Amino acid sequence: MVRNREHKNKVKSIKSEKKMVKLS
Predict the structure, then answer these.
(1) The pLDDT value given to residue 22
(2) What is the pTM assigned to this prediction?
(3) Where is the composition biased (Basic and acidic residues) (predicted)?
């Protein structure tokens, strides 16, 4: 479960990074 949560956080941060790139 912990590993899964870490993976989700990684995916979340990657998605948010892509969003930031799109916005800028």
Answers:
(1) 84
(2) 0.51
(3) 14-24
Q: What is the pLDDT of residue 1?
A: 65
The b-or-e profile of 5-21 (16+ CB within 10 A means b, else e) is eeeeeeeeeeeeeeeee
Q: Cα separation of 10 and 1, whole Å?
A: 14
For residue 5, give the amino acid letter: R
Give me the half-sphere count of Cα atoms (radius 13 Å) on the Cβ side of residue 20: 6
* 4, amino acid identity: N
In angstroms, the CA 21 to CA 8 distance is: 20
**Cβ neighbours around 3 below 10 Å, total:** 7
